């Protein structure tokens, strides 16, 4: 997979920053476009964005919030 880049412009200078692709928090695989995954804030603390791929959602693979330790299917 090719890395994606975002451009930031400050005072006429263009800086390239590498953007990391979204990864499933359950299986840690890269979530491809059109994967029908989901993103939601942690249901317990609401401070962390949880990402899950289609396969992990369908198989109810457990995930854990890195902030509060909440575990969900």
Indicate the topology:
Layout: E1 4-10, E2 13-19, E3 38-41, E4 49-52, H1 54-58, E5 63-64, E6 71-72
Antiparallel strand pairs: 1-2, 3-4, 5-6
What this model shows, in words?
The strands form three sheets. This protein has a two-stranded antiparallel ribbon. Strands 3-4 form a two-stranded antiparallel ribbon. The protein has one helix at 54-58; strands spanning 4-10, 13-19, 38-41, 49-52, 63-64, 71-72. It is mainly β. The chain is flat and about 45 Å long. It is built from one helix and six strands. The longest helix is centred in the last third of the chain and has 5 residues, at 54-58.
| Largest sheet strand order | 1-2
Mean pLDDT: 83
From the helix content, strand content and strand pairing, which structural class follows? Answer: mainly beta
- Weakly predicted, low-confidence segments: none
How does the major sheet shape up?
2 strands, antiparallel
Question: What fraction, in percent, of the residue positions are helical?
Answer: under 10%
- The radius of gyration computed from the alpha-carbon positions, rounded to a whole number of angstroms, is 15 Å
